[in-house]
Specification:
Layout: H1 2-16, E1 26-29, E2 37-43, E3 46-52, H2 64-76, E4 83-87, E5 92-96, E6 101-102, H3 105-108, H4 111-125, H5 136-149, H6 157-172, E7 178-181, E8 190-192, E9 197-199, E10 206-209, H7 210-220, H8 225-236, H9 241-268, H10 275-290, H11 295-303
Antiparallel strand pairs: 1-2, 2-3, 3-5, 4-5, 6-8, 7-10, 8-9
Helix pairs in contact: 4-8, 5-9, 6-9, 6-10, 6-11, 7-9, 9-10, 9-11
Amino acid sequence: MADENTNELLQTILAEVPGWDAPPDEVGPLEGGITNLNYLVRRGENRFVLRVGGMNTDLLGIERNREYAISRIAADLGIGAEVYAFLPDHGAMVTHFVEGDAISAERAAQPDVMSRIMSTVRRYHGGRAFPGSFSVFGVLRAYESLALERGVVFPPSTATALEHARSIELALGSATELVPCHNDLLAANFIDDGDTIRLLDWEYAGMGDRFFDLGNFAANQALDSAGCQALVEAYFGRADTRHLAHLHLMRTMSNLREAFWGFLQSGISSLDFDFLQYARTHLERVMDEITSARMAEWQAEVQA
């Protein structure tokens, strides 16, 4: 029944896309997403991506109107997919398919590719202001509260992790510069068109701390200490110790965001995915980072 309902919704949405008076020549699912339903749509020689927002994604902090506006900004900057249509009643968006090569996490961590990705990141960091804001600390508090309301049971270690998150928030203070941020720098969101490495999926984007983007990239590509130093050098041109400390703290916060995202998704999502295992995996990474002798040093460094 769920498949029939999904197919009916898909047909309804396709019929409402402006200018599409006839059915597409071909529609097929795109694999890899764990938040939304994604489809590749072919009409003659043109290919599009239809993304239908998952159930209750507003609880994850996703605002579809904001995502649409930011996606258009990214397209104008030449670093995103061109937006073809937005259907807010269905939480759906159609973008032109970006021709190019997918990038694995291993390839994204290579110095030459990392440098090109950071060129893209600097472009939107220094570009037009995004609507909305993103604070990983506020997101954590919201995810925890919403998950508890839905009966999600957290492992005991989450209390220690949240205590460290509060200490990191205090260490960073209020001096963080707000810039346009993507906040979901997974390798799956990178496409190399041969000239520019483009970014997809601007769901979590907003004005925030550039170091969350950098820490998020480091976490998602599993960069070691040398990789983190190379990342700071690729972005800033040199490896400042305070910048490195800020990145390391936000790498921890990125993993903690992913853990609580998974816990909340386990209570709200209908997708066939083991969100609890996803959450536990990221929480284990956080606990490994917390036990590092460098954690206190990093907090002291950003306050220097």
